[in-house]
Amino acid sequence: MMPIADVQNYQRHRAFRNPENSSISHELLLPILLFGSMGAITWAIRGTSGWGGVDGTVVPGLMWGLLWFYLCHRKGIEARGLVLWLGLGLALGGELGYGQYTGWILGKFYAGDQILPISPWIGYLWFMICGIGWAAPGGIMLGWALGGRRSKSVWISRTLLVLVLLVFIFGWSIVEWLGAQFVQIWPGMLFPHADSGLYAGVLGNHLERTVYTNTQNFAVLIWWLASLLIAFFQRDRTTLFTGLFLGLGFGIGFMQSAIWCLGYGGNAAYIDWWKMWELNAGFNLGLLYAVAYYWAVRQVDRQHSPQGVRLETTEKQAPESISDLRLEIFFLALSGSVLIYFMGFEYFFWAGIFLSTLYFVAMNLTVTGVAKISDLKIIIERRKNMLLTYSAFLLLFLMFHGGTSRAGIVFGLYTADAVEQYAWPAARIVMFLPVALILVALTVVKMWRIIRWDNASPMPDRFIKYLPERMVDLMTAIGFIGALSIWPAKIGVFYALFIFLALFAFTRINRRLNSID
Predict the structure, then answer these.
(1) What is the Cα–Cα distance from 179 to 213, expressed in whole angstroms?
(2) Model pLDDT, residue 317
(3) Cα separation of 217 and 399, whole Å?
(4) Residue 359: CB partners within 8 Å, gap ≥ 6?
(5) pTM
(6) Whether residue 477 sits in one domain with residue 335
(7) What share of the chain has pLDDT > 70, as a percent?
(8) Domain range for residue 175?
(9) 370 vs 308: CA distance, rounded Å
């Protein structure tokens, strides 16, 4: 579980979590409003032209991770290391499809030129399975990040789990082969109207999509159950909770938000039913992450005395040698760079290669720095600061990278047809390049300062001083890009509503934290 970063700060804030001083509104309800509102905006951004499935889903994941880090930091709890893993873990679900289920809950099953009746509950069931697949990897990886250091055998099993998940998500030919096996052996288990012989012979586009999507969603569902089972045998209670709570919770939340699809056929000039669904789904998952944050803070309290002293535990808190730490950082660098590569190889291959390489090199430089050192505490602090810096950079890079797609249309630089399928006309490149260069330059300077850092204190004072203002800047920038991404749609008024609610919750939480400090 998360360690203590500032003992005195932790002591002060823990005293206000006692039953006689605790405020459920500030500890849980306002974080739910904050996480949910920012989740609504960023999840809707994820579903907008300019962002793909996986890279778009990184956006809400990293935003929730940064909010989690900020609230923990203000309470003296360490959470810098989990931001990136929360974002990347959640992002993998972004490759899962669900489009045909919208027709199923309306009682329509499309099969070539004909529309067959289907019970709506089948559509809702598959929405739930898909929702589990979207959130389960993020929940499992969040549990791994929270759970502390484990033995090498545990990390080997986790590595194998991630490789299997990547096969299910990005191994398109393998998923197609699995689907063909289900069609031949037991089609009725996964595919509607299997008893009518629809799936015999050459399949049309709709049926091909049904076979592929249902097979992939089912495979990730099995992966989720297997991950929970392994966590059970490894006595990993943290991963059991986060994996089960976020996976099952968003399965229900995804199914609930899909009810907006029933509005199809209404007046789309006034209500974008699909975007209402995305806003609702993002709020639902943000709510779940807020509850998970609340639970995690309570687990920190269970593992520490009121004075911030860690109680007896079997978890390892620090590597025992420089070689162990070097191996650990190399594993984090390699696994993270692989996930980042898969995030972008479909839509922006060379930019994805750059982002992946930057992360891999930066993480490994935390071990050597400018001058090779052997102080484990300094290297650990460098690693945590590097993870946080890269997470913030990646979020901003992806926001502006995708945002230029619509921005050029709004400002009349090119038409919507010019940027279909994530194309990059010259005007879009010219618009994005200065922003990208500034972001990269500022990040490289920050990374250089980190690898030169020879102090074991958590973060520089100048960073801590302006952290609340920077969080407000980030939230308002995301709100602006979100509204820009759908301009001039009337649904943009909901983006304004949610950014207002997020800032309302953030300022109230901050006022409470300031009063305790």
Answers:
(1) 9
(2) 59
(3) 27
(4) 333, 336, 337, 340, 390
(5) 0.94
(6) no
(7) 93
(8) 7-317+456-516
(9) 34
